[in-house]
Amino acid sequence: MFQAGLKWMFLIIGTTIGAGYASGRELWQFFGHESGLAILLFTIFFSICCYVIMDVSFNQQSSDYLPVLRDIVGDRLTKVYDVMIFLYLSTTTVIMIAGSGATGQAFNLSYWWGVLAIAISLIFLFLKDISGFLAMNQLVLPLLLGGLLYILLLFMNDQGINMLSHLDGQRNWTAAFPFTALNILPLIAVLGAIGNKVRTKTEIYIAAIGSGLILGTISFIYNSSLIQIADELLLYEIPLFAILNHYPVEILIFMSILLWFAIFTTAASGILGMVSRLQSMWNAPIWLLAALIVVAMVPLTTVGFSTLINYIYPVYGILNLYVLTRLLLYPLWNKTMKHP
């Protein structure tokens, strides 16, 4: 039971801790100075949202996100969000595949070698159905989280940083809302696919509270580190490299490999959400659907997505805030509906 809870916890973390988070870009964009309270609120909101999504998918015994979505946003908005989730998963997965190409270039390899490496790995991952994906998460994520924590704590120790020194002002507390909302849609897609595999409510508690606490703690330590080098961050596309700049090249290579795995787990989560949705309409093996999706996406990595993202992501921000509100108030309005 505990082990199953950990399995879902790593699934949640793997879906959330993509390249944007692991590289520090997302954290610095939303948090930065005066954000201690914002990160605490994010931890609480995130745990509640994960619990509600898993509880709904468990009660529905769902194998894709549609029944969960219907329960959360209602019948009228389900079609809109169904299209939006599929679009969101598609764009983020394409961006991750392109990100793998860019990582390849960082190691002086061709862009297409990087794309090919992630494409083949993603298809192989789903050969064993969903179990291969879950096993990969349990293996890779402790390494990724451990490596990230090690570097951050080493940096803080070397710089003599006191994490509690910047807790006097908390004006940025509202950042908790958009930051939590940003991470919700992919979680509905992924957790909706495993409702029929969850056995007990205890697993849900372990996964929801554990993932919130781990992500909250890492976010706080990471943000505290970035505050110390705020002036240097303008020079770096990836904030993590501003920290790694203080260490030997071997550590840079090690963390670059871990960043690639962060890209990989996010792409895999996106594909899981898409294939589980497609399987409800077309009863084909998961690996075949995964292969078709990956092959269709590879040419799209050459398209400039920055314009698309500039238009699509603000819309997602507003729609996600609505879903966040529904999730946080779900226990209340669900009770009201049952007892009018």
TrEMBL record:
Entry coiled-coil feature ranges: none
Keyword terms: Membrane, Transmembrane, Transmembrane helix
Domain of life per record: Bacteria
Record has Transmembrane as a keyword: yes
Transmembrane intervals: 38-58, 79-98, 110-127, 139-156, 176-195, 204-222, 251-274, 286-305, 311-333
InterPro entries assigned: YkvI-like (IPR038728)
Protein name per the record: Membrane protein YkvI
